[in-house]
Write a structure and sequence with these properties.
single chain; mainly alpha; Helix Hairpins; elongated
Length: 134
């Protein structure tokens, strides 16, 4: 189950990355790309799209936890999943012992996805501000 979830979240993240990179490419073709607010807006768009990717991914884990009976109720499952995906790990909501290992996979998955997100945002900043110099 952990491997399947990592595969699903990787595909989701890749899709959100494609949206972001497509928009960055359009920005580079825009004759008004050197306007300061346009560049700031493009970086902000990139951050928000990739943040949305993380929310979607954590939400899918939450749905799986409820479907497996590991956590009862969507609100605690979403809370647990978000805390786990971000590796914050409060520990006030815990999984049924049969599914604890899945939470470890989610935390590892979250670290990878946030690293990937950071790379995308850094790329966005570089692309926006290197094209502004031209």
């Amino acid at each position: 189950m952990g491997f399947l979830m990592m595969l699903v979240t990787t595909l989701i993240h890749a899709g959100f990355m494609v949206i972001t990179m497509h928009r960055l490419a359009a920005h580079e073709r825009n004759p008004h790309r050197t306007a300061p607010l346009h560049g700031l807006g493009m970086v902000g768009f990139s951050v928000l799209v990739m943040f949305a990717a993380g929310l979607v991914e954590a939400s899918i884990y939450a749905v799986v936890y409820v479907a497996l009976g590991a956590i009862s109720g969507m609100e605690p499952a979403l809370y647990f999943s978000t805390v786990t995906f971000t590796t914050l790990g409060y520990g006030d909501v815990v999984l049924d012992p049969r599914w604890r290992l899945l939470a470890s996979f989610e935390a590892a998955n979250g670290i990878i996805m946030f690293g990937w997100t950071t790379a995308i945002v850094v790329s966005a900043v570089q692309r926006v501000y290197s094209s502004a110099k031209e």
